[in-house]
Design a protein that fits this description.
With 314 residues, this protein is of the alpha/beta class. 48% of the residues lie in helices and 9% in strands. The strands form two sheets. It has a four-stranded parallel sheet with strand order 2-1-3-6, with helices on both faces.
Length: 314
């Protein structure tokens, strides 16, 4: 069985906030951790640098499919390296904060998919022991995704519906990340919930916002980390959106796109101000089944959707 946990999410669903809260468990004094220097290892599952350095292959010379065939080997190798470090008393003594921190969790936006050889892209249970899946109301994801990608909200809604969507999937443009397949908001969520390779703990962004201590403590416990509630409450305060926006204003957040802010609102239900009725209807039509499954109350009945959208937008 693997040695770390995936921290998985569709983009703009709260993954970064979760990681920053967890990182602030180890903040010193009353100062929050630097958002550009989180105590984690590997950054994101799609980063090219670990692929190139560990597998000793220049990923830029490979097709997406060729990279995909090798990615299971990468995550299994990372798991073995982690196990060796955790078994080394000298390493533990020298690097206790990193070992106790977010080192056993790795951010991931990839859907749970399989290579053309039939292997789990993310290495299956030989790489990760489990996964925390963070989901967010798709009506709030759409405007946040539009802001992050510098596209219109309608384009973001199209992207979230398209089962062929991906990040860094254009073969004509180099990216520092490998391709991440994002088969629509519903398809991405279903891929993690319905796979049977590793256990998954579901976290709704809305629950994390309403009761962050209880929700994040339960998720960390599932991943194998027992956290004191008082320490976690302090970490939540240090990772408030006001503090995050202050940090981003002082020094650009490395994960933000050029010219864009990353920490925009962070509030559940903001879609009521951001979306037009027709945009709400499009999202609810596209993702009705998954919204029902996750407990996101829809604004419109199916009959209302047909009336608002009409046959031309089917």
């Amino acid at each position: 069985m693997g040695s770390f946990s995936w921290l998985a999410s569709y983009p703009k669903s709260g993954n970064t906030w979760f990681r920053i809260v967890a990182a602030n468990l180890y903040a010193e004094g009353n100062e929050p951790v630097d958002i550009n220097d989180l105590p984690e290892r590997g950054g994101i599952s799609s980063a090219r640098t670990p692929f190139d350095n560990i597998l000793l292959v220049d990923s830029d010379l490979l097709t997406h499919e060729e990279c995909d065939r090798m990615r299971p080997m990468l995550y299994r190798a990372m798991a073995r390296e982690e196990e060796q470090q955790l078994a080394d008393p000298m390493q533990l003594a020298e690097d206790k904060d990193r070992i106790d921190g977010l080192v056993r969790m790795l951010k991931c936006h990839d859907a749970w998919t399989y290579t053309d050889l039939g292997e789990p892209l993310l290495g299956g249970r030989e790489a990760a022991r489990n996964a925390i899946l963070i989901v967010r109301d798709p009506r709030d994801v759409a405007p946040s995704l539009a802001n992050h990608n510098d596209i219109t909200i309608d384009a973001a809604i199209d992207f979230m519906r398209n089962r062929e969507s991906s990040y860094c999937g254009d073969p004509t443009h180099y990216s520092s990340q490998l391709r991440q397949q994002l088969p629509g908001w519903s398809g991405h969520t279903a891929s993690w919930l319905d796979q049977r390779d590793i256990p998954v703990h579901l976290v709704r962004y809305e629950d994390m916002e309403a009761d962050p201590v209880e929700t994040i403590q339960a998720a960390l416990s599932f991943a194998g980390r027992q956290v004191d509630r008082g320490d976690l409450a302090r970490a939540v305060d240090l990772a408030s959106f006001d503090r995050l926006r202050e940090q981003e204003a002082r020094s650009r957040f490395a994960e933000a796109r050029p010219g864009r802010t990353f920490f925009r609102r962070g509030q559940s239900g903001g879609w009521r101000d951001d979306l037009a009725d027709r945009q709400v209807a499009r999202i609810e039509r596209d993702h009705a089944a998954m919204m029902d499954r996750l407990g996101y109350a829809r604004s419109y009945s199916l009959a209302d959707l047909e009336h608002i959208l009409g046959e031309s937008d089917a």
